[in-house]
Amino acid sequence: MTGRTHDLAAITALGVVVVLMTPEHTVTLGTAIAAVFANLIGGIAPDIDQPTAPFWRNLPIGGLFGRFFDKLLGGHRFITHSILGAALLGWLTSLLLMFLMPIMGTIDPSPVWWAFMIGVASHLVMDSLTKEGVPLLLPIPIKFGFPPLKSLRITTGKVVELAIIFPGLLAFNAWLYYTHYRQVLDILHKHVS
Predict the structure, then answer these.
(1) How many domains in the chain?
(2) Which residue has the higher pLDDT, 49 or 160?
């Protein structure tokens, strides 16, 4: 999937989780904003193993880092596209959040971490829809995809993604927020301060 599709899928997944699992406690506005930001980063984080990924293109010397991480992580759609890689990304993110705690003020790291992981999970799900699939069970080198027949899966950046998947996610978001409008407003009023 393209970076735009991963961004939209991550935000969609976060919206579904928030609507289905109304937060139990109040979060600060800073925490909510940080969580959305972390979700978007999580939505593209597994692609740090690709030198041309949007993550690297947006940094001044990102191409250099991208080539380094590509070699270090075994190439595109290898470790970072597995359950092991997701766990590693989650662990590294929790370490980063603990390191940043003294300067984060009122930001609660727990929802930020969960939002990041929701983004990572959405990335793996979306990439499983492509012809290449994902090696979920690494070190077992089997790539998984849905549907199981590779010929029925989509090609990244081609017409099915651009004309069906992306607009479908947009339509789903419109439906989700239209049908749960009152609930989303209640969540914002009661749980974000």
Answers:
(1) 1
(2) 160
